[in-house]
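Notes from hallway chat w/ T.B., transcribed later so I don't forget. T.B. wanted the structure written out for a chain they're using in a teaching module, and asked if we could keep both sequence and structure tokens in one place. Agreed to drop them here.
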Amino acid sequence: KNARPEIKGAVYRIQKDDALIPNGPRGNTLIWDSMKAASLIGLLKDTRPAVRDRAVEKMIEMGASILRDLEQVFNENEDPTFRKRCLWAVSRIQEERSLTMIRSALLDADAGVRQVAARSLGERKDAASVQVLTGLLQDTNAFVRGAAATALGLIGDREAVPDLFQHLNPSDPLHTQHAFVYALTEIGDLKGVLPYLRDSNRPYGQRMALRVIDALDADLEATSILPLLHSTDPDLRQEARQMASRRKEWKPAMIRVFRELSLEANSKQLNWQLIESLILSYAQEDDFQSALLETMSSAGQKPEFKEHLLNSIAFLDDLPETLEACVILGLKENAPELRSASLKLAARFEMPSNVLKFIAQLEAQEGVSKKDKVDALKVLVKHQDRLADGSIAFLTRLITDENTSVILSQHAAQVMGALRWHLLDESERDAYLKTIARARSFCLPALMYPFEHQAGINGEGEHGLNEDAWDVLGVQLAAQLERNPAVGSLPSGTVNLLRRMFSEKVSRAYAAMSEVLGDGLYTEQKQEMKLRSILQELGEGNASRGRVLFYKERLACASCHRIDSRGGQLGPDLSRIGRIREPRDLVEAVLYPSATVVNGYENYAFELSGGETLDGMIHRETREAVYLINGAMSEMRIDRKQIEHVHNSTVSLMPSGFEQILSRRELLDLIAYLQTCR
């Protein structure tokens, strides 16, 4: 009765406090040896499972002599549960007469009885029932159809293959669909399945045929699957891609497919997911690497195609040394999207010194866009933990300049936040702290990362700060936060992090930080007062000015949100937002985006087997992977095998702190415009 959690694999019997305790749960008080047939059959109605099971065992011992009684009771009784129990008992009596009784039950009025009968005949491998079972593939009940298909598979009659394919139905429940595939796989008639693989009029049938062939691990020429890779049916394409990725013997054919795709003139018709699948499957192969480098080196290849190649290569778990050259090839192009994809790839993997040198030269060039410069600095910080003279000042300007777009400012803060505090000299530390005092509100969380990292290594060797030094640093950080008007907009997660880092163990830092951060309840009260104040002035907003503001790069609203087919698609479509949301909801969503997150746009945190945690919004999914979009607008691929745990994040991808970015008039104008979106 006592739990023993230290004993792995222990089995517990759980009983509710008010549950009725059955009298003799195993029927040990019954006189089994002298029990007559009628009494044994009557025990099939007993509420005690162990008693029913023991009664069936006794019936099996009696064999053919009890079948007449079972058949009579089965035909006379109307209780479907009892009749199914009778049928299961009959199925275990290995007599020809029992088969006759079960066959007749295939036509019973009750679907549950038909299901039991079909399953029983399958277990008995009754070839005489194939014709009736084939008819049940059209039964009105999905469970009966599934049981009939399973039975045909267990019997193994190849004559059933055409009927199984004919009655495949994509709208069936998954368990029924699986039963049909199971049946075809058990029958194992490759010759009978191949015609349905070629029937392009029924893509669902092609997909199931492909699944059966794959399960049989049958030899198949790559030419049989190539047309399916270009099918107009997305599910069939995905099934074909998955099979192609597992068949390494098809590598030469898949390389030819890749080369053909690279020559496709109309990029809008390209199967981008097929290209990605080919790269993920064959990127470690020398022949395929040569084809990739040849395509990246081609002057006539479209930048859009090369960009997709680089983005797909970034999804690899390990980057082959040969493909490191793709980074430099992409950076040499004039197309901004190619440079961005190349820098993203360089930030994803460890890079050799020649690539890092090229990136450093690019970052130092005149005329390089601010975005490319920030992306380059991200790579250099990751690999070198330091920045060249002037880089911190450049990032600071982006973090503090009100005219810089929200996305670029946030990206710059993430790069600066990747610096390691113990590697900065005194002047760099001073510059960093002063940046915090002037940073825009949505940049502050990222700027706390160096302190979080430092807190993690304190007391662990040469890089740790002693308690007094940590106390002094906490006081300095609190002083700079106090100078920043946006400190009241810090997300609760950042506030809690600061409180944990500077706890009562460091008394001066704790006192200073507590004074700056204040009480959480007081913050909520301030937010409520702010909302009420704005709601009272809503009539003063100008929708025309608000529309202009919405599309301005400074706010970057349209980078994520779409209104009437214009804008991004990362966030919710706002075309009808004024009709479905109250004014208070709109104001709260702009100022405090994490207060409520729209269904379907939640931020998720994925804990991986290697200890890493990635967070973002689920952008798309396949059977093998989940693709996330994070706050930096970067897509990340997570192999499902690496996922240990997934949970909702309480923080929205939309940055907070717009009350510090927008003037009161601008906020009222923006809300006025959103109210007109109906």
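Follow-up for T.B.: The chain has 37 helices and seven strands. Might be a good example for the class.
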